[in-house]
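[scheduler] slot 2 assigned
[scheduler] job type: sequence-to-structure, two independent chains
[scheduler] chain ordering preserved from manifest
[runner] begin chain α
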Amino acid sequence: MKKRALNSIILILAAGVSACGGGGSGSGGGTVTVPPTSVTPPPPPPPPPPTSTCSLLNRQNFAGSVLNEWYLFPETLPTSLDPSAYSSVGAYIDALTATARSQGRDRFFTYVTSIQEENAYFSSGATAGFGVRFSYQGARLFVIEAFEGAPALATGIDRGTEIVGIGTDSSNIRSVADILTTQGSAGVSSALGPNTVGTSRVFRITDSTGTRNVTVAKAEYDVRPLSSRYGVKIIDNGGGQRVGYINMRTFISTANDQLRTAFSDFRAQGVTNFVIDFRYNGGGLVSTAELMGDLLGGNRSSSDIFSVTRFRASKSSQNETRRFAPQSQSVSPVKIAFISTNATASASELVAASIAPFLGANAALIGSNSFGKPVGQIGLDLTACDDRIRVVAFTKENAAGQGDYFSGLAGTMRSTCAAADDITRPLGDPQEASLRTALDFLAGRSCTPIALAQSAQSTNSRNERRVLPAPTNASTAQREVPGLF
């Protein structure tokens, strides 16, 4: 395959994070921008193809051929594996990648998904649901973010709200603690219902105003990559220091113009210190990550390396070095603080890792260790069956040759500062613990480093660590936006 053709499918570097691992993907790309307020539902499915074309065996064989040709870890694939022993394409892929997963190199990053669903999400952020991110803390369920234009926020549910109970109506509300005790997190996902428009649930919630019941029905909406409430800010950090703040939720194409506008304003106002809040960013399009790197690279030369893409040996002709390409809106950072949690993955890690060699100790990881996904997927399609095989096919390295951060970025960044994710305060609030620590770093104040032993998959401090849930059959949006329902 020619390199030009391959570039059309190397579009993503993402990971969705759940309690038991994660998977991720992306698609679409380019510079098409859809207004954040529009809703673009996926087109209706094509007529059913001939049975033989989309038989389970043919679909499994297609998946197997993709992995045999492109998988980054070919030595881990079984020499032979009879697909007839598996009841789905996904189960067959799970079996093919079992060895790499046991080694921590492919934590459910290779899978089958819907072409149409992916294209809808990556072009406009289109999805359906309540429009919140959930997280568990011990046996409690909290909202850690609510999305503009989605049903939950319209009812007053926002960051810091605790979901105490779930029911289909007020007469059958069941406590979250009881569901978790008897059925685990899968029981909560089931109680929340399918991702279909009109699915309604009654939540018993507790927030600063007290405890009450709220009815929310799932609806279509677009995930806005930068929040209209707190996505972009300039913060007075005292002593005359002004800090540019970006809260980046996901890397999709609608972020491109938003980022250009934000950085143009930062540049016009002479801002040189930045907080990039990636705390729940599961990744997304490589093209958008590269643009963000360029916008942070006003003091970079066009000869400076942003990242190196490496494929398996048999595909080494596809290896590529991507250099910085400063834009008219680019800024020239003196210091950058990247806020991270165990849900920070992939494209967000790529940006931080690629900036780090040039700023050294002036680039810091703030919060807790990141997820650890220095690999990306390509997508190969069986169009007639709406199957896209997302296969881990390449690894990313920065200019210093660092690309093995499967345990998170804490061991790669020269500066780190431990901080809590304080959901009692809004995102973008300078008094929120992680942002406060980031501002302290930029001001030159000392901090406690993130413990290197605290990998993103660590089970230590389970009652303190936030776990972002994901359903077994996650949608594209749920893979890319950890904790989304």
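[runner] end chain α
[runner] begin chain β
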Amino acid sequence: MPSFIEYSAETDFPIQNLPYGVFTSAKNEHKHIGVAIGDWILDLNVISHLFNGPLLKDKQHVFKEQTLNAFMGLTRPHWLEARLTLQSLLDVSNPTLQNDSTLREKAFIKQREAQMHLPADIGDYTDFYSSIHHATNVGIMFRSKENALMPNWKHLPVGYHGRSSSIVISGTPITRPFGQTLPVEGADPHFGPCRLMDFELEVACFVGGPPTQLGERVTARHAEEHIFGFVLMNDWSARDIQKWEYVPLGPFTAKNLGTSISPWVVTVEALTPYIVDNYPQEPPPFDYLRHANNFNFDIKLEVDITTSKSPVPSTVCRSNYRFLYWTVKQQLAQQTITGCNLRPGDLLGSGTISGDTSDSFGSMLELSWKGTKPLRLKNGEERKFLADGDTVILRGYCVNESGRIGFGTCEGKLLPAVPFEDK
């Protein structure tokens, strides 16, 4: 399926990918929906009239919106028709865009000339805890090897509701937070800047499909109709604040300081060639969490860190989405089993994705084993946790005989804590 748009074989965005995003540019300050193709963005606002298939000819307005919510709120057949239309328009054999120089000039913009924005208005955000290796590592650190997993962990996808208002697009700096900590066990708590800042390597799913009603449930067998696509996610975490506050109700201010996501939403259809077996589950889950088909993906994940002293990246983690014990279908089913309603643009985070080797752990907490094994970076610096000025860069890509697609990057720089003033 060659495109008339030229791009490198190593691009994240060939014609087989076509992820969706929202952007502005110098020539247009209004947010437009676009699709990434090579180094370019195809502006769907400009070509909305070309979505003239039987399902989308009366829905062209969704491509003129400033977010993806309306498009996400359609059905999977609509999404499939849009994808086929885009692949046809970009195909080397199709003259519609290729030979219309005026339309091409309006419709394409270089990615380097665009400013990316959150792809959707995110009404609700849930972060899960679905990597068995991550959960086991944390359990060993804070309890014991014999009691690493809590009794409920293999029976349901554990999660918590996060703060959607502090989800930010890749490139947005994150400020080291203030909070309460307990530096010395048994002593009084301390208030001040977080000392143990961490990243968490995650992949998040955007919910799609028509909204469900309060009281309605979606089982894992039907969950795919509500899974629009995926982004990389860094769930920044203040570990010392988290340790003091999380009992008894779980994460709170240690997590609401900022969550970064990548700008391009990679669709389920683009990921289908990279499906792998689901992680074996024992005991078998309850019926509402069961689905027949595999819905796990071979997404290779990497984390780089650059520091204020050196722009040379140090790769500190190589993991894979396939390590998740609970699938996103099961996560969505658990979200709705009590009758919780879904809305297009809701976000479901996977939880930290750690593998079974020490170089595949998806957080500094694990990589440094709670600070007892400092990491040495390429420039000679050591890290137990993140330092001010560090930039964390997440990457994700799939590659096999079908070719290569990717997610781009999810980046964020950690800024120093702002002096606390009670004005």
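[runner] end chain β
[qc] chain β: The radius of gyration is 22 Å.
[scheduler] slot 2 released
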